[in-house]
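Hi everyone, sorry if this is the wrong subforum. Our group has a chain we'd like a structural model of before ordering constructs, and none of us has done structure prediction before. Sequence below.
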Amino acid sequence: MARYLIRILAVGALALGACGDNDDSSDADAPKTTASATAPYGTYVRQVTSSDLARTKEKREEYGPAQQLPPAGRYRLVIAKGAAQDVLKATDPGGFTVAMDVKSSDATIRLTSYVDPAQAAFCGVEIPAQAAYRFDADGSTLALEATPEDPCADRDSILTGTWREQ
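Answer:
Right subforum, don't worry. Here is the predicted structure as tokens:
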């Protein structure tokens, strides 16, 4: 995540919860990921390749001394329901995590703000934090695509693609 502000030293685990009146029989057959109209909650992984990074090269700007090209490799994505706000966390192969508040509707995830921009961000302050991604959750896969084009090259390189449930 090329626009590292501060390296995160520890990555916490998220506990995904469910609300509502479910009987015991439906819990046993419930899928690990809920692909609903509101959000594709779950934990996913995908390989971010040099081709993913090259695809966004034309819009990449390396402002600031701590900003760099994100690494290629296996990324982990968590989309979780929060008490006040849903959250998306993307973790690179080295364990660096960027967390963003999200709102979801109509098969679109809207990234509204960074959870703590002083700790981690995909891009520097000159690039808007807000972005939108269409999603298609089908069984154990989640496909994300920026809509319209995300001005943050690093976020686009990392998020756009097909993720597999972990």
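For your construct planning: The chain has one domain: 38-165. Residues 38-165 form a domain with the Lipocalin fold (CATH 2.40.128).
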